[in-house]
Predict the structure.
Amino acid sequence: MRRTNLALALALLALSGCRGCTSSRPPIHPNPNMYNQPRYEPQAASAFFYNGQAMRPPVPGTVARGELRDLTKDGPYWTGKDAGGMFVTAIPKPPQDEVRRNDYPVDYAERGKQRFEIYCAACHDKGGDGKGILFERGKVPTPSFHTDKLLQMPDGQIFDTITNGTGLMPAYRYPIPVRDRWAIIVYLRALQAHRLARSGRPVPAQVQPAPPAAPAPTSPQPVPPQPATPQQVKPQQVKS
Ligand code: HEC
């Protein structure tokens, strides 16, 4: 009994001595279990796959959950263009899929201001005069948002510019999701309207900063019960 106690005390002492020690050598695993499993590092090469890459691309035609975009029905929202290929002049209603995916409410003007200051202000400056860092340092001609051209530019064309870029302006389709692009446009219109109002000029309809119309409710609103007279009751009403 004494011997066991002594052995135990020694073992504890030895173990406590290990606390806080660092070692440059890999730890010893008396029982390796599943510690080391063969795997690839991200971006690693592989002799197994024909294209030499360990990372596999998604199967062509794969649509991530919630990413299916019905361009025939909701084209204007995703592309800024209507069925005839013309730029839309108002911010389209978000399709149900999009509403469901972004199931948190968003204040378009506030979100737009925040995104604008992150993504656009660097070049177009906070007031939208085109006096950002690109102009200051490199004299790159950056348009002001307060010119007649930009006041008249349809919302859909601004959306398209953010999505695909234009001339010297890069595309922002990847860093800025679709809903944020529309929010930025709401804020851009607010900047324009504010400037026009300050200089006493009338604010044209397309410059009124209007968030998209509320989407249709997902489920039909409950109809309050009506006192049914025999003439009013139609067969399908009875069925439900
Ligand atoms: C890296 C600098 C840079 C950033 C960031 C940038 N722009 Fe631009 N933008 C430009 C330049 C430069 C042009 C002029 C393009 C040309 O005509 O060559 C331009 C042009 C435009 C135009 C006018 C297009 C036309 O056809 O006249 C709009 C609208 C616009 N930008 C909106 C935005 C919005 C909205 C954002 C933020 C999402 C943004 N830009 C971010 C540099 C930038």
In short: Confidence is low (pLDDT under 50) at residues 219-223, 227-240. The pocket of heme C is lined by residues 119-120, 122-124, 134, 140, 142-143, 150, 158, 161-162, 166-170, 172, 176, 184, 188 (CB under 6 Å). The CA atoms of residues 63 and 111 lie 27 Å apart. DSSP finds ten helices and no strands in the chain.
